[in-house]
Amino acid sequence: MARNVKFGGNPVELLGTEVKVGDKAQGFTCVGMDLKSVSLADYEGKVRVLSVFPSIDTPVCSLQAGKFNAQAGELGDRVQIFTISCDLPFALGRYCGAHGVKNMVMLSDHLDLDFGMKYGFVLSGLRLLARGVVVVDKTGVVRYAEYVPDVANEPNYDQVMEVVKGLL
């Protein structure tokens, strides 16, 4: 059965494997701002928040990155927040420099959509990721998964933080 979200007011199919609470988190590799590979396994032993969106160059995505950056600064080193999009690493770096983002790992899935396909966030026909959040506990189990039904809306930050704080 096809899964859809709204993008620009129209339904768009999500490609890849939908993750659910209780699933073992699949490993994935993306590209960091320094053009080096970064994997989920690089941060084993931490609670990991995967903040996903289409493009840092849009207002809602920028807002999402800013809110998670602020929350990351409050959570300390037991939690690692990642921002994942198909933006080029250069665009992510430009955004971080312009907005003082220092508390998150910014990742690009532009090369092969490894994260997007393994976690079911690829917007069919657009080569962009949908908006959502996945929380992975210290043992590698998915404890929260949100696919925002309309890409124009923000994720549920309060619910994400409630789950994260419950895992600490």
TrEMBL record:
Domain Thioredoxin: 19-168
Keywords: Disulfide bond, Redox-active center
Gene3D superfamilies the UniProt entry points to: Glutaredoxin
Bilayer-crossing regions: none
Keyword DNA repair included in the entry's annotation: no
Pfam families linked: Redoxin (PF08534)
A GO MF term: thioredoxin peroxidase activity
Signal sequence, start to end: none
Cited InterPro entries: Redoxin, Thioredoxin-like_sf, Thioredoxin_domain, TPX, Tpx_Peroxidase_subfamily
Top-level taxonomic group: Bacteria
Protein name in UniProt: Thioredoxin domain-containing protein
